[in-house]
Amino acid sequence: MVRTLIVDDEPPACRHLAGLLRDLGATVAGTAGTAAEALRLLDRVPVDAAFLDVRLPEVDGLALGGQLRRQGVPVVFVTGFADFALPA
Q1: Inter-residue contact 45 to 81 (CB < 8 Å)
Q2: Taking every pair of C-alpha atoms in the chain, what is the biggest distance, in angstroms?
């Protein structure tokens, strides 16, 4: 079973994505609303992949994604903004 982390500062979007992942058979190991929360969670809970919103408070999802990829965590970016698709 794939263990996932969802990082999104909008609870409805987080719940929706969590439901989709569970429907696909993945486990949602945790959710976070900021990059700092995500990093604290990852210190305690191993994950196989992270789903990151591009726009997050303080540190954006692109910066967090770069850090997670360097740690060996595959990253999938999620966003409702077409302008962020190319940088992601």
Answers
A1: no
A2: 33
Pairing of strands 27-32, 75-78: unpaired
């990059």: which residue's tokens? Answer: 35
Q: Distance between alpha carbon 42 and the CA centroid of its chain, in Å?
A: 11
Rounded to two decimals, the pTM is: 0.89
DSSP code of residue 84 = G
DSSP 3-state assignment of 46?
A: coil
Burial class (CB within 10 angstroms; exposed 0-12, middle 13-18, buried 19+) of 43? exposed
Cα–Cα nearest to 66, from 79, 50, 43: 50
Q: How far apart are CA 9 and CA 48, in angstroms?
A: 21
| pLDDT score for 81 | 63
Pick out the chain residues at pLDDT < 50. none
